[in-house]
């Protein structure tokens, strides 16, 4: 009986320690697996989410260095296109300015295009197909701009409000089935700090889903990411983090409402423990039970400097690790304990020592198992129960070794990830350095080595960094103080961004660096290293110095211009004083002027009139101010006056003078000499018209009388008073006029000279008064024969007359001569002293010629006179031709 108690005690201890050690191994494996998964998720998020902000910063640097002109939107458009080629997994790279202009380089579903909105049509956005160089090919469609103005979009407003690089809230883009987040960066004028615009990059969250689904989290474990409000961002399940409603709109999915039980129970457990997701600010490890099942849960915050705040949650059921191990353990312990207890009575004495040694050996191996020593147990006893226990132990060890191998595989995957990160750092276009906790440089990428002109990493303590790497304060020959070196400040917990250090290289070369140093934390929140990114900004500093010098010169020029402006203001004040004095004199002259004066609106209404104008028109001042210029103007003169006013308003003429008629209040007409000028404001906009009217009615009446007298005098000068036909003076003028016209038109001109036959005898017999009446009758007979307005008869002298026939050939002249004879015969003027007829007759000479500049007009007259002489020689009362 004394042996039974030790055996029973030994078996119980073996069972207890086996259970405890197995539980410790499972807990440790679960923690390691969840930590590795969490690290992989954090590394992926840091890499994937850093790209949009690096791209925005690169674009901002291109603007600062003058490589990109934001005023040239075509240039911006093509720049964004080339950027999109380098980042094919970014769907939209964009820029919007304060005027509302907007450009997007778009890459969705394998197709590239450009979206553009231009002021003033900023409420619409146009899509264009593009070629391989980013040039527009043709228009595709026009859509309404969301919110009616790109400047009202949340990502633009956020960048403008915070004046810094920021993440937007998560949103859906149009009807695309994906969640999107935008990285934005505002751009400011260096001197005025005026906002020029905002760069933005859209990034899809579905790629995070795809990454999480590739992670093997035990057999049924789940990784998911949520916001502090509990809404899902991504998960390793096939479940989408949003719901699509019947109205074709999107609704974000809460983790508590997930259809996956693991996500749902984990979320409820977190709420139960912490009351709210937003209360979690550090890494947390939980173990909870739901529906009889135990779960391991790991929570870690993911935050960045741009305002992102997510929680990464890893959940693994304990059964994934321990189910089989516990089954084997329980079965074998029960069997072993039963056998030991039943056989203890008979075999206690024989087997006590052997069993004790075997169990102690087995206990030692179990403890080694907790130290990851998976040595299998060989046969350590011939006792059947001990053999069974040994086999159970070996089965459990094999399963734990398999779990350990899984963990080692994860470690290898982590190493591969580290290699990937190293390659990524090598691909960066900026220098990157890593410092350990002691400040020693442990890594430099190739760009860093090229900038520093070194091939390997020199050894240097914290105090030796400035001296070994030739780090100096900008513009001095003083080494950079070790305590201010960015990497060492980052090891103290600071995030450092500065531009005040330079590197002195061989051959007297100096480069100025922009340095960004950030601390690196482990899972416990402890600083384990620092990472430093730096780039050569020598050219940018030189550009800024040039800009600063230009600004100083500009300030001097502005100051000089200000002094000149002050002088100009003083002169303008003097001018204004003189103008006021001139205006006073004008008002006095306006009121007392002897001529009528008025100020008239552009619509023709009287604004101000003087006493002389009122007296001229017969109106009281108030009565005249109620009228318009049109109402006092004679209708026939109105159209010309209005046209001249229109020309003066549009600037075609500066002023005009016009004689026009006005209607007096009593109804009679008044003639006025109108002088008009236009008054403009300082911006050269028309204000009103100033008019001066001089009463010239008496003058116009005198002119009319004089004109009538002149007409009478002209008549007396040109018309023969006896015969009432044109005289010799008019004949000479008209003949020369038609001669010149004949030259121009190359048309014939005929001339008839006619003489009253035996007129002296007529005078002697009938007397001179009768002779005068005879000549008048002959003139009328000739005049009645002429049918065309251009044909003209004139008294050539004494009893001789001349007939001018333009555009008439010789035959026409002969016909006209016959008609004159017939017309005179109808008058039947008696002539008792004529030897050839009882009535008055005439002899006619006809000549015709086509005028030429090479001959004299006298030739035609001489020829007609010779023909007249022939007619007289041939017996009179006839015509002859030359």
UniProtKB/TrEMBL annotation:
InterPro entries assigned to the protein according to its UniProt record, in alphabetical order: Biofilm_reg_signaling, GGDEF_dom, HAMP_dom, Nucleotide_cyclase, PAC, PAS, PAS-assoc_C, PAS-like_dom_sf
Residues of the GGDEF domain: 747-882
Residues covered by the PAC domain: 491-549, 656-708
Organism: Gloeothece verrucosa (strain PCC 7822)
Segments forming a coiled coil: 540-585, 690-719
Protein name from the UniProt record: Diguanylate cyclase with PAS/PAC sensor
Tree of life domain: Bacteria
Listed transmembrane segments: 333-352
GO BP term (any one): signal transduction
Record GO cellular component, one term: membrane
NCBIfam families reported in the protein's UniProt record: GGDEF (TIGR00254), sensory_box (TIGR00229)
Annotated ranges, domain HAMP: 353-405
Assigned keywords, A-Z: Coiled coil, Membrane, Transmembrane, Transmembrane helix
NADP as UniProt keyword: no
């Amino acid at each position: 009986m004394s042996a039974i108690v030790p055996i029973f005690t030994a078996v119980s201890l073996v069972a207890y320690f086996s259970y405890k050690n197995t539980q410790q191994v499972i807990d440790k494996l679960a923690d390691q697996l969840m930590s590795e998964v969490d690290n992989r998720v954090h590394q992926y998020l840091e890499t994937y989410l850093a790209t949009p902000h690096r791209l925005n910063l690169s674009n901002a640097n291109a603007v600062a260095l003058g490589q990109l002109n934001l005023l040239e939107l075509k240039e911006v458009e093509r720049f964004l296109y080339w950027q999109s080629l380098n980042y094919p997994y970014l769907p939209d790279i964009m820029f919007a300015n304060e005027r509302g202009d907007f450009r997007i380089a778009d890459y969705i579903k394998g197709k590239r295009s450009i979206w553009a909105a231009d002021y003033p049509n900023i409420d619409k956005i146009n899509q264009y197909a593009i070629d391989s160089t980013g040039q527009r090919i043709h228009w595709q469609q026009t859509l309404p701009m969301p919110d009616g103005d790109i400047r009202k979009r949340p990502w633009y407003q956020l960048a403008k409000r915070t004046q810094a690089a920021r993440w937007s809230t998560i949103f859906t883009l149009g009807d695309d089935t994906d969640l999107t987040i935008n990285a934005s960066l505002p751009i400011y004028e260096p001197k005025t700090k005026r906002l020029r615009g905002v760069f933005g990059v859209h990034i899809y969250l579905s790629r995070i889903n795809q990454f999480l689904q590739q992670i093997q989290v035990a057999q049924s474990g789940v990784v998911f990411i949520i916001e502090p409000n509990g809404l899902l961002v991504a998960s390793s399940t096939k479940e989408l983090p949003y719901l699509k409603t019947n109205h074709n709109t999107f609704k974000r999915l809460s983790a508590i409402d997930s259809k996956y039980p693991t996500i749902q129970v984990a979320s409820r457990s977190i709420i139960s423990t912490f009351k709210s997701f937003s209360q979690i600010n550090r890494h947390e490890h939980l173990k909870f039970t739901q529906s009889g099942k135990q779960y391991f849960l790991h929570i870690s915050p993911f935050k960045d400097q741009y305002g992102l705040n997510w929680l990464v949650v890893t959940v693994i059921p304990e059964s994934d690790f321990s189910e089989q191990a516990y089954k084997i353990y329980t079965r074998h312990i029960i069997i072993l304990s039963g056998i030991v207890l039943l056989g203890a009575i008979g075999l206690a004495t024989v087997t006590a020592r052997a069993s004790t040694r075997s169990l102690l050996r087995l206990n030692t191996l179990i403890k080694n198992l907790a130290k990851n020593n998976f040595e299998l147990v060989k046969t350590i006893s011939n006792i059947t129960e001990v053999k069974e226990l040994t086999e159970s132990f070996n089965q459990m060890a094999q399963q734990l070794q398999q779990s350990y191998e899984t963990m080692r595989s994860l470690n290898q995957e982590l190493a591969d990830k580290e290699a990937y990160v190293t390659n990524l750092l090598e691909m960066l276009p900026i220098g990157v350095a890593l410092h350990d906790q002691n400040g020693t440089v442990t890594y430099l990428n190739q760009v860093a080595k090229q900038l520093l002109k070194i091939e390997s990493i020199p050894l240097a303590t914290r105090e030796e960094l400035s001296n070994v790497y030739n780090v100096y304060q900008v513009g001095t020959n003083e080494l950079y103080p070790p305590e201010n070196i960015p990497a060492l400040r980052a090891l103290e917990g600071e995030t450092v961004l500065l531009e005040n250090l330079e590197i002195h290289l061989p051959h007297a070369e100096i480069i100025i660096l922009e340095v960004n140093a950030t601390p690196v934390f482990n899972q416990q929140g402890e600083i384990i290293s620092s990472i430093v990114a730096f780039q050569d900004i020598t050219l940018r500093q030189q550009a800024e110095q040039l800009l600063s010098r230009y600004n100083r010169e500009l300030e001097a020029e502005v100051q000089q211009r200000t002094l000149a402006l002050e002088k100009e203001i003083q002169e303008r004040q003097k001018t204004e004083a003189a103008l006021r004095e001139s205006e006073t004199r004008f008002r006095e002259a306006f009121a007392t002027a002897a001529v009528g004066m008025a100020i008239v609106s552009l619509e023709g209404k009287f604004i101000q009139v003087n006493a002389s104008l009122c007296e001229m028109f017969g109106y009281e001042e108030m009565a005249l101010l109620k009228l318009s210029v049109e109402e006092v103007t004679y209708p026939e003169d109105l159209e010309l006056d209005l046209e001249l006013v229109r020309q003066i308003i549009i600037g075609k003429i500066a002023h005009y003078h016009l004689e026009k008629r006005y209607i007096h209040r009593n109804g009679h007409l008044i003639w006025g000499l109108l002088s008009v000028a236009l008054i403009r404001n300082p911006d050269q906009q028309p204000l009103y018209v100033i008019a001066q009217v001089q009463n010239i009615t008496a003058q116009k009446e005198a002119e009319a009388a004089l004109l009538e007298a002149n007409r009478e005098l002209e008549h007396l000068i040109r018309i023969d008073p006896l015969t009432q036909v044109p005289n010799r003076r008019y004949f000479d003028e008209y003949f020369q006029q038609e001669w010149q016209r004949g030259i121009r038109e190359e048309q014939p001109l005929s001339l008839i000279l006619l003489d009253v036959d035996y007129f002296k005898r007529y005078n002697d017999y009938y007397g001179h008064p009768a002779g005068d009446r005879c000549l008048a009758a002959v003139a009328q007979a000739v005049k009645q024969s002429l049918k065309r307005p251009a044909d003209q008869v004139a008294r050539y002298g004494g009893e001789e007359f001349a007939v001018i026939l333009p555009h008439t050939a010789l035959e026409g002249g002969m016909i006209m001569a016959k008609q004159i004879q017939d017309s005179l015969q109808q008058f039947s003027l008696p002539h008792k002293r004529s030897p050839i007829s009882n009535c008055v007759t005439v002899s006619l000479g006809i000549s015709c010629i086509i005028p030429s500049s090479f001959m004299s007009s006298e030739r035609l007259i001489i020829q007609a006179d010779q023909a007249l002489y022939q007619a007289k020689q041939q017996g009179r009362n006839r015509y002859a031709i030359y």
